[in-house]
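Sharing a chain and its predicted structure for anyone who wants a worked example. Both blocks are below, sequence first, tokens second.
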Amino acid sequence: MSTGISMSSVNKIKELADNGDYSLALDILEHQDLSKSLSPQFIRICGEVYYENGRYADARAALVRAHSMAPAGNKIIYSIIKLYLSMGFRKQAEHYFEIYRFNQESKDAGTYRIEYMIAKAYHKPVNELYSILVSANDVETSEEWDYEMLLLHAYIRNKDKFDSAAIEFKAKYRNSSRLSTLDSLIENTESLESKVYIFPCEDRNDDDPEQEEIREFEKKILDEDDLKIHPKDAKS
């Protein structure tokens, strides 16, 4: 660990994360002192790097700190929700979703996508997932979410829509790392259920002793959030 964090490292981590090279980004991040960063959005990116490398405790520490610095930053909250669903902390994820909605004036693509992820965490029927994702992609789409729609088409066995969307995906995202997986979906060799329902289906206890410090810090931040959302309740 270095005694600081250099701008060249910051820029490289951002570049690698943006390109999906999370393993290489982690190699650089490991040699930086993230506590020196005053940018909540950069700390969020680092949290996502930890998340993509399966370092959930480190991701949590980074993302909660980022949220404390920018309570209205919904990109940060979105990342926390995804992390907590992956950790099996569904109630905590739903609590953060309440904060997200409070911060968001109108329903955006992120709102639908969080609804979609929470529905997946509760193993809702695939037709319900499909309906939510259509609404999200009508607002805004990307490679990640176009691919997610392909997964649902394949899982539902909607071959016509899958074939059409697959051709469009290949043309639109020629350099995508997902193309090899897409071929497997077309050939029907992938385990589709495990790719759709990626989150734990049962609530897990948030009782890891090594995360006690971040839990206590997070509680204080959430108390402040609750004060903004429910001022009357806080006073009573």
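Comments welcome. The first helix runs from residue 7 to 18.
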